[in-house]
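User: Sequence recovery, please. Input:
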């Protein structure tokens, strides 16, 4: 396994745990000039301000910085629009990518700012915590008392640590997480390249949309 930090992946603000000797390149990451293997995302929890306006500003700036960080490495993020609105958004993303990729040190400065914003309340005791790396920061915020002390649950043949009120956390993030959504709303990160290692290249089997 390989512990890959944000500075190496150029893929939003998320830390990844990747398997060496593999490749997993989503369609929106094809342009990135770095190795992307089969991975597990590592989402870090930071304190969220108890003041509503300050918390909103903290989440808003972190989200914008995360989007700009992604555009440093790719001009093709997933855009949830259609028609003319999607074309306009694609044009804006390509323009921002062009500018950011030509400004020396832009990625480093953006990441430092992102770290500062996401960690600015960590020296205080706050009621809520969240992961600033996710798309929907607000719905991933929850009471710290729902997290600690951690509990233990069985996963296959070993036990893992989980938030003590894990059901409240999952409901907050995903709503009715025990029910499958309709088929037309089931989506994933469609890959352009999949290589499991040892010659098991599945790229030719991908159904591209």
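Assistant: Recovered sequence (209 residues):
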């Amino acid at each position: 396994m390989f512990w890959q930090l944000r500075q190496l992946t150029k893929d939003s603000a998320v830390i990844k745990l990747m398997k060496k000797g593999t490749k997993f390149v989503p369609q929106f990451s094809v342009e990135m000039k770095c190795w992307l293997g089969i991975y597990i995302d590592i989402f870090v929890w930071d304190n969220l301000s108890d003041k509503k306006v300050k918390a909103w500003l903290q989440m808003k700036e972190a989200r914008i910085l995360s989007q700009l960080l992604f555009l440093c490495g790719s001009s093709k993020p997933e855009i949830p629009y259609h028609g003319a609105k999607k074309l306009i958004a694609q044009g804006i993303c390509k323009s921002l990518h062009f500018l950011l990729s030509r400004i020396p040190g832009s990625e480093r400065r953006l990441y430092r700012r992102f770290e500062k914003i996401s960690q600015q309340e960590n020296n205080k005791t706050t009621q809520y915590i969240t992961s600033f790396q996710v798309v929907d920061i607000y719905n991933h915020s929850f009471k710290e008392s729902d997290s600690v002390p951690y509990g233990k649950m069985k996963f296959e043949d070993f036990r893992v640590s989980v938030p003590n009120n894990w059901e409240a956390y999952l409901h907050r993030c995903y709503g009715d997480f025990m029910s499958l959504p309709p088929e037309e709303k089931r989506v994933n990160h469609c890959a352009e390249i999949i290589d499991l290692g040892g010659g098991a290249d599945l790229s030719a089997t991908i159904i591209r949309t």
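Residues 6-11 have pLDDT under 50 and may be disordered.
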